Amino acid sequence: MHNRRSFLKSLAAVTAAAGASRTPAAGAAAAAAQQPAPSGAAGLRKSVLISMLPRELSYQQRFALAREAAFEAIEMRTITREEEAAEIREASQKTGLRIHSVMNVDHWDLPLSSSDPDVVRRSVRGMETSLKNAALWGADAVLLVPAVVDATTSYKEAWTRSQRVIREQLIPVAAETKVVIAVEEVWNKFLLSPLEFAQYVDEFASPWIRAYFDVGNVVFYGYPHDWIRTLGPRIMKVHVKDFAVDRRAGRFTWHNLGEGEIDWPEVRRALGDIKYAGYVTTEISGGDAAYLKDVSARLDRIFAGEHPVPRPQGSK
Q1: How much is the average pLDDT of 170-175?
Q2: Which of 22, 78, 84, 114 could be 105's S-S partner, Cβ–Cβ 3.0 to 4.6 Å?
Q3: Which residues of 180-199 are buried (b: 16+ CB within 10 A; e: fewer)?
Q4: Number of domains the chain contains
């Protein structure tokens, strides 16, 4: 309870500080990409993952395409080349599409929970790059898969090793860049319940560690609305995708929003219950302008508490 109280008490203060204390470059980027008041119900904002946009287009063209589809922001991935990072910053400024978060790319191949010091060192370096990307682009969070449980790394080792590295090496960088590390639950055999996820975040007792909740990732063994209500204000960002399980055959498939088995109205109610107001990023297959506009419209219906796909009158 003490850790949770400390977390909640410091959260409001650091949120204000993050906006006021960025580097000049990051401040300029954030100001240039500033968005109007949220268009979604109760402050929900529509965001798209960079991988959903056509790779053959320039960054500015991709960002413009997202804007035309009524997305308010984008989630980028780690960029190591300074010239490319500068191009992305310029695309955000020119199109007015805010970069709100960065998805770290090294956490799967180079987990912080590894017993190999070199792997951990390279993983930390990748996160440092991600945090600097975020500061440059005006984003306020970096998504991190904190650990991977495998045949050589036990659950306890994954927990303790990742927490130690995050606490000793990454939180100081997060505080310096004023960018939150948002840990996500994925299929890494780790953080398998909302209670564990909440405990993992709370044990840091740091406003620089919060949760990035993925609605689709828990359907195989849980209920998104339960996770949302349990995690509560720890949630800083939300990913959405749909999912269906053939339990007889033991198979699963990913789907567009509204074409799987997620109870989207219940998810929306849960987000309202915790008073979540922030970005909801689509993490599904990409497509052309017409496809992106359809995905955007599905998000609008989710925000309104409706099913993402219009259904015949009288159907459930």
Answers
A1: 98
A2: 78
A3: bbbbbbbebebbbebeebbe
A4: 1
Q: Is residue 88 part of a domain?
A: yes
Half-sphere exposure of 247 (CA within 13 A, CB side): 4
3-state secondary structure of 314: coil
Residue 95 sits in a domain of what CATH number?
Answer: 3.20.20.150
Its sign, for the CA torsion 270, 71, 277, 241, is positive
Q: Is residue 139 a part of any domain in this protein?
A: yes
Query: Any idea how long the chain is?
Result: 316
- The answer to whether position 312 is within a domain reads no
In a domain, 57, yes or no: yes
Confidence of residue 291 (pLDDT cuts 50, 70, 90): very high
Local confidence band at 312 (pLDDT 50, 70, 90 cut-offs): low
- Of the listed ranges 27-36, 48-57, 58-67, 154-163, the least confidently predicted one is 27-36
Phi first, then psi: give them for residue 95, nearest 5 degrees.
-95, -15
Give start and end residues of each alpha helix (H) in the chain. 2-20, 24-32, 59-68, 82-95, 117-137, 155-165, 171-177, 194-202, 224-231, 264-273, 289-303
Full domain range(s) for residue 235: 2-303
**Closest-CA residue to 121 (of 159, 183, 176, 169):** 169
CB 237 within 8 A of CB 209: no
Condensed to tens digits (0 to 9), the pLDDT of residues 60-97 reads 999 999 999 999 999 999 999 999 999 999 999 999 99
